[in-house]
Design brief:
- The chain has no helices and 28 strands.
- With 340 residues, it is mainly β.
- A 7-stranded antiparallel beta sheet has the order 11-25-22-12-19-15-16, with no helix packed on it.
């Protein structure tokens, strides 16, 4: 005896993924992203027989697959390629072997990123002038010129690519939360990875500025100096787009910050007395900094590396006449961070 289910009585699909990433997915760089979903348990007598997927840009329908006869729970977007730096939502429903059709799923979100170097709006790969030798190199701070926004942005996305490791700051605040040691390891002769972040809430009406600081990362084994490429895409409420990009002619650089040496194997030397409070804020004066220079110039989206836990150890060191008498562990603490 087969169970008869009325139309729309079945539960909708869930766990919607784009390129195997949960919503929202930023920086999609493929022409044909892959959509996938999970189906709810429906009983042994009810089998999936098809799906219908709809993709929207704002309120406008960009693509409708129609009802596709298949028992698959994934689909490739057939093209043409979605416009660069645009947000989309998508939703899916499924049909069953008994003829029933589920309700639509809750929407999932994706944002397309640059697919090639031409999409980066002229952003240059830049570095500090004094970082041509990678041996015992301090971290480099780079800062954009101040730029003025007539209104808070409707949406803003920061794209950052680096040869080495880079962290982005906007108006004195760190971008990316627990994301550290990014972008990921790659063959720098073939591709440069990039990260994408929603920074809409970090920009304000009035003066703004962007900063990035660079560490050696895996590229230290190649003999190259660390360098960074930045594109900040800002959409204002009136539909105007403002692009802030890294370039050697206007960005400033300095290597006199607190990280005096960094290496993936030899660790880091940090001098807190040399910190530069507020260095990425528009109120910070970079007149004494030097000019950035163009680095050696392959872009691909990078899965972020996130800081999941931090371990601290406190020791008591007893010395007498330059001789170490004892080294005692007083306490050790591990702090776990929520991945989300």
């Amino acid at each position: 005896l087969l169970l008869t289910v009325p139309t729309h009585a079945m539960a909708p699909p869930y766990q919607l993924l784009c390129n195997l990433q949960p919503s929202p997915v930023l920086g999609i760089d493929s022409l044909r992203p892959r959509f996938s979903w999970a189906l709810p348990a429906s009983g042994r007598s009810i089998l999936p027989s098809g799906y219908q997927l709809q993709l929207r840009r704002g309120p406008h329908l960009a693509w409708d697959s129609g009802m596709v006869a298949t028992n698959e729970t994934s689909a490739w977007y057939p093209g043409p390629g979605l416009p660069v730096d645009t947000g989309h939502s998508w939703t899916v429903r499924w049909s069953a072997s008994n003829g029933s059709i589920s309700a639509w799923s809750a929407p999932a979100w994706l944002h397309t990123g640059p697919r090639n170097l031409q999409d980066w709006q002229g952003a240059e790969l830049i570095r500090g002038a004094s970082t041509s030798n990678v041996t015992a190199t301090p971290a480099t701070h780079l800062r954009s010129p101040i730029f003025y926004l007539q209104a808070p942005p409707a949406t803003a996305t920061a794209y950052i690519s680096a040869v080495g490791w880079a962290e982005l700051e906007i108006n004195g605040g760190a971008v990316g939360g627990l994301d550290k040691l990014n972008p990921g390891r790659t063959n720098f002769d073939m591709r440069h990875m990039f990260m994408a972040y929603n920074v809409s809430g970090m920009l304000v009406e009035g003066n703004n500025s962007v900063g990035a600081w660079l560490g050696q990362g895996w590229q230290s084994m190649t003999g190259r100096a660390p360098s960074v490429r930045v594109w900040l895409s800002i959409w204002l409420p009136d539909g105007t787009q403002v692009s802030i990009v890294s370039n050697a002619s206007s960005w400033r650089a300095v290597t006199t910050g607190p990280i005096r040496h960094n290496d993936i194997y030899q660790g880091e030397v940090y001098n807190s007395s040399m910190e530069l409070p507020g260095w990425s804020a528009p109120t910070f004066n970079t007149a004494a900094w030097g000019s950035a220079v163009v680095g050696l110039s392959l872009i691909h989206i990078s899965e972020p590396t996130r800081l999941l836990s931090i371990s601290y150890a406190v020791f008591c060191l007893k010395k007498k006449k330059k001789k170490i008498l004892s080294l005692t562990l007083l306490t050790s603490i591990t702090r776990n961070n929520n991945r989300n």
